[in-house]
């Protein structure tokens, strides 16, 4: 069996106050990308240990944690080997690890109830325990995400459009970006977040393309990420010299993104940019 794990784009990210649990209140609009990791699932002999292989990525990953969490909650499916073909840049603000974990949870959701000891658990709750981006990616779709990522309201998909991604090598720590945002006192406050939620719901209602509400496409973490890695600002400026309809950073960075009406325009901008790390893909489609 082969699973696809689509990357996600933050069309916007509004930051609120830090919560007692150390996480931040936020409001974000996610959309899935055609860029995805691929996970090959192989059944192992009875009695074998689960294996999670991800060439080029060291240490335990979220997919391994997701599989271990399922076992801890009583999932008794046969032992598995998961081999991850990593196409989504690592630590780039594109939710690659979360996408892999969500794909593993989807595997269990589609499995037979006889493979559970007792009642199957709430996979959304397991997803929230694994990470802030995992709940929204259980069902890859355009979604308004609130809280610290646990409140997910799915929205109609807009018409397909194109993106030019510049990951800048990835590797920017999400925790450090949020800490820098706190140092810079970036905090819209909860009343402002509530107002922005209403605006986004109205703007994206009915599957409207993001080009209809470009003024709402803002990432509050962008100044903090640029503070930690100044060349992100230079990449954003280079993208603004292309025909991109909108340029912003996704997630906690460092990936800079240009939005385009179609693939031809995005591919032309990639040629103009001349970056080896540039990725052209579509949004709204996950296969």
Task: Describe what you observe in this structure.
By secondary structure, the chain is α+β, with helices and mostly antiparallel strands. Helix content is about 30%, strand content about 25%. It has 8 helices and 10 strands. It has helices at about 60-70, 95-110, 125-130, 175-185, 190-205, 220-230, 230-240, 265-275; strands spanning about 1-20, 25-45, 50-55, 80-85, 145, 150-155, 160-165, 245-250, 255-260, 280-285. Strands 1, 2, 3, 4, 5 and 6 form a 6-stranded mixed sheet that branches. Helix 1 (about 60-70) packs parallel to helix 2 and helix 4 packs across helix 6 (about 220-230). The radius of gyration is 19 Å and the shape is globular. The model has no long low-confidence stretch (mean pLDDT about 95).
* Mean pLDDT level: 94
Instruction: Calculate Rg over CA atoms.
Output: 19 Å
Count of domain modules: 2
Spans with pLDDT under 50 lasting ≥5 residues? none
Q: Which CATH architecture of the largest domain would you pick?
A: 2-Layer Sandwich
Overall outline: globular
Largest sheet geometry: 6 strands, mixed
Distance between the termini: 16 Å
Helix/strand order: EEEHEHHEEEHHHHEEHE
CATH topology of the largest domain: Ribosomal Protein S5, domain 2
Strand content: 25-35%
Strand elements, count: 10
Which CATH class of the largest domain is shown? Answer: Alpha Beta
Number of helices: 8
Query: Which structural class matches the secondary elements?
Result: alpha+beta
What percent of the residues sit in helical stretches (DSSP H or I)? 25-40%
């Amino acid at each position: 069996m082969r699973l696809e794990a689509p990357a996600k784009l933050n069309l916007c990210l509004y930051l609120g106050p830090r919560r007692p649990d150390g996480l931040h209140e936020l409001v974000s609009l996610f959309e899935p990308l055609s860029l995805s990791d691929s996970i090959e699932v192989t059944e192992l002999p009875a009695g074998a240990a689960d294996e999670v292989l991800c060439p080029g990525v060291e240490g335990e990953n979220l997919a391994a944690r997701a599989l271990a969490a399922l076992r801890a909650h009583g999932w008794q499916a046969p032992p598995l080997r998961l081999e991850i073909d990593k196409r989504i840049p690592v630590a780039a603000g594109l939710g690659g690890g979360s996408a892999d974990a969500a794909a593993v949870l989807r595997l269990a959701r589609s499995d037979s109830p006889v493979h559970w000891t007792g009642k199957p658990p709430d996979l959304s709750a397991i997803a929230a325990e694994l990470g802030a981006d995992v709940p929204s990616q259980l069902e890859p779709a355009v979604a308004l995400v609130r809280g610290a990522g646990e409140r997910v309201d799915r929205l109609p998909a807009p018409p397909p459009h194109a993106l030019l991604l510049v990951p800048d090598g990835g590797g920017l720590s999400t925790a450090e970006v949020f800490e820098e945002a706190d140092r810079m006192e970036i905090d819209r406050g909860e009343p402002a977040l509530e107002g922005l939620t209403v605006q986004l719901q109205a703007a994206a209602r009915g599957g409207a393309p993001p080009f209809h509400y470009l003024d709402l496409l803002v990432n509050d973490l962008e100044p903090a990420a640029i503070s930690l890695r100044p060349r992100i600002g230079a990449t954003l400026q280079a993208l603004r010299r292309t025909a991109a309809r909108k340029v912003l950073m996704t997630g906690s960075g460092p990936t800079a993104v240009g939005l385009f009406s179609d693939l031809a325009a995005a591919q032309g901008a990639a040629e103009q940019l001349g970056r080896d790390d540039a990725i052209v893909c579509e949004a709204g489609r996950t296969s």
